[in-house]
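User: I'm putting together a teaching handout on how multi-component assemblies are represented. Below are the sequence lines for each component of a complex, exactly as they appear in our records. Could you produce the 3D structure of the whole assembly as structure tokens, so the students can see both representations side by side? Please keep the chain order the same as the input.
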Amino acid sequence: MRRFAVEKAKKLVSGALLSSRSCPSSPFCSSSPATVAAAAAAATATMAPTTSFPVTMESINPKVLKCEYAVRGEIVAHAQRLQQELQTKPGSHPFDEILYCNIGNPQSLGQLPVTFFREVLSLCDHPSLLDKSETHALFSSDAIARAWQIMDVIPGRATGAYSHSQGVKGLRDAIAEGIAVRDGFPANAEDIFLTDGASPAVHMMMQLLISCEKDGILCPIPQYPLYSASIALHGGSLVPYYLDEATGWGLETAELKKQLEEARSRGITVRALVVINPGNPTGQVLAEENQREVVEFCKKEGLVLLADEVYQENIYVDNKKFNSFKKIARSMGYGDEDLSLVSFQSVSKGYYGECGKRGGYMEITGFSPDVRDQIYKVASVNLCSNISGQILASLVMNPPKVGDESYESYMAERDGILSSLARRAKALEDAFNSLEGVTCNKAEGAMYLFPCLCLPQKAIEVAKAVNTPPDAFYARRLLEATGIVVVPGSGFGQVPGTWHFRCTILPQEDKIPAIISRLKAFHEAFMEEFRD
Amino acid sequence: MRRFAVEKAKKLVSGALLSSRSCPSSPFCSSSPATVAAAAAAATATMAPTTSFPVTMESINPKVLKCEYAVRGEIVAHAQRLQQELQTKPGSHPFDEILYCNIGNPQSLGQLPVTFFREVLSLCDHPSLLDKSETHALFSSDAIARAWQIMDVIPGRATGAYSHSQGVKGLRDAIAEGIAVRDGFPANAEDIFLTDGASPAVHMMMQLLISCEKDGILCPIPQYPLYSASIALHGGSLVPYYLDEATGWGLETAELKKQLEEARSRGITVRALVVINPGNPTGQVLAEENQREVVEFCKKEGLVLLADEVYQENIYVDNKKFNSFKKIARSMGYGDEDLSLVSFQSVSKGYYGECGKRGGYMEITGFSPDVRDQIYKVASVNLCSNISGQILASLVMNPPKVGDESYESYMAERDGILSSLARRAKALEDAFNSLEGVTCNKAEGAMYLFPCLCLPQKAIEVAKAVNTPPDAFYARRLLEATGIVVVPGSGFGQVPGTWHFRCTILPQEDKIPAIISRLKAFHEAFMEEFRD
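Assistant: Of course. Below is the structure of the complete assembly, with chains in the same order as your input.
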């Protein structure tokens, strides 16, 4: 997996992913022989001598070879090796611990789960607790009441049974109600597909929309690499549109239009537009007016709007708020038949950060009944998503209300997490901006900063000499000096010739000052070492 | 989704899935234009007038159109409609309830979860319970101890964090230990990939092995339609090998050889052999000698052996026992480099039947490190499987031991479920064999019977006149007369001209006599109605 990171990073920015002008004509394979041979050659460059294994790098699906996911890529594998070395040989590195800032995984860095949610999950996992008086000593009364409500909507109260392939109807009803309250427009349980986190939902839509390399998906650059990975695995073309770093990662419809036309001129049928709001890795929150332009653009151009809204609860600035694209479209007077819209939501993000529960959903509006039947069919092949994740998705969309026993403690936990995240985002943003040659836009939302690195020419040359993108070179040096794991910008895509990295805002607040000191000391030494 | 069931059933038995002799040369799409046009025409035959939705049946991925999953197909959709009618208009049908015998979903039909497993899950979901004295009044001491052990192997005790993409290392260690105890041969945590049920693991392997229609996968006929669906979604060719109904669904290596050669003569590169043991839908348990032949065959022909072993705990006869293919291979002296083997296991089956938890794993042996890196990379794109499912997978592979507080109650629950399943299997088998024109092999294992229907010619003609396979016609009539939902054999594949259905053995034992009475009455009336 490691040796592809570099190749893929290069391809993503250079647009090589889009370079095939027609689908392959090889009778043997859906990727052209030249591409496959090149990929296989790259793959085998560092291989051990041929073994007798029947499955080889040459024989596997070339789409798998092409796919790359930098968030758990080369730099993370290297960090895991260093962590093992620290365990076996304490003191072997100039730091005591590896600090994983590569991934939005709050609880791995010490964030505690929201008590009410976990109480309900615990009761639903062992429903016979609900019949016992001792349970009242251990669980809040509203958690017990909520668990009963959930039991009542699960057929036969069987939390161990496969559900409907879209998820338990009663839980979808609760989610639809939560969406309606959020948006002020109705939502329908029939439109909701519960999934194991948001990722399988994204794959499902890509699988539906992509038939071959001629099918394009407009994606922001920088983008969350789930999108590039999923498009690669399904054999489509990523059509990039660049966010404007100078205007706080602005999304310009002129850029959308330009890239759409350019792709069409190459014979690409653009099927959908991905918008990540709040942005990942870029942290911007779209303004309402901007969202209206996006809706208008998709309607006019006949594109499905794939709205990644998993950070909808993560807003850190007073002058912005989250608006779902469905709310925007409905407020413009557009109904189901005017816009094909998919909204992705996850229990992994927000203030809850329940990544390990793998809960999420997509809300699908503006699709014909027969196409929806096809989506249902694909969902049914995997039977259903996990019931705990389904329950948790219903809870995050319907948390405790005023008057519930848990309300105050719930709100204290929620606000404590969100306000701390806002402070951490600001502290890290200020720290990055204080570094020589580094500029960093504000994290208005989401969980990341994406600073821009103006690196000395000498560092760029040294990196190129070892066949590594300069930002990956920087990230590796940062890791080896400080134990801090960030993801090079080349894993997300960036304007050619610019360099960035993504760093989460998730380390616990009391560690932030020490992290900033380590960052500064490293950066100063790095700049000194490579000063032109 | 419904209108494809019939088409697909026809294709599966006629081998039309394999009829393309070369990969498509269309520059636009990985399916030939003719196929797509035909599929689209079939799809639109009953469509409403064209709408303005940008996504149409003509524009979606034709592999999605081709895919079919009968277990939640047309007959189940019809059953759900009847269930709604029963709720809104009680007495509107000649039965009071719908009995879902279409799917191996034990807890949906009243099977209770194993207490120890649920105690541990409940504690892990709300770990602060572990610190409270009241907890000892509600949970067994070994469940508390086990939850502590699990907490100790989860980094930071964070059950809400993404884990390693193969699953928590300590849980994989526990599973490897369970496999080693089961087989008497060592197992390695590095070989284990935890997944949300077994289905995503099957998809992952198909994605790896299939590049285009020229890549074939040998599958039993009848087969569990996850395989045909997954092969269709990934664009490969299902190469059928027929199980011999006359010898209790015998797996003959001569048949494997014949089908392999036939496929090769058509230019198909056969990549892997799927074996489902115990069989689904067929219920046979392979003899050790037979398994050795299969191992030898895969080794000689350079095929990956994909061993679906999810029913490993479900054995109902004294003269058979489950042997994993890994144990068989190792006992033949074959090590990692001699055979590429993937074993699939799930928490959904066995005596535990925890379908809704979506836990499972695959154990991968005999793959080169670079190919394993590719499998890891694909797993990492979806980050990890759900942690509750991971914990449960570790529990079913390491249940309570002699001396543990829960051991006796655990064994009583386990044996109660398994012995009841054995009685239900026998009762239903005998009932089917007592019906005119019906023969049914024994369910030695798994959760299904797959009786053969010798239907009157008149019934076959009436079915054909309404463009329905005769077994689907029978299943629909059975549903409408009795409320019993079975899956037509055409959804699994069968020897052309023969007709079957799959019926689970899962209805609660006290309901079995009434079910048998309803079945008999229906069958007699059906045979009378269509007597030649």
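A couple of points students might notice: Chain A is about 45% helix and 10% strand. Chain A has three domains: 2-47, 70-110+414-529, 162-396.
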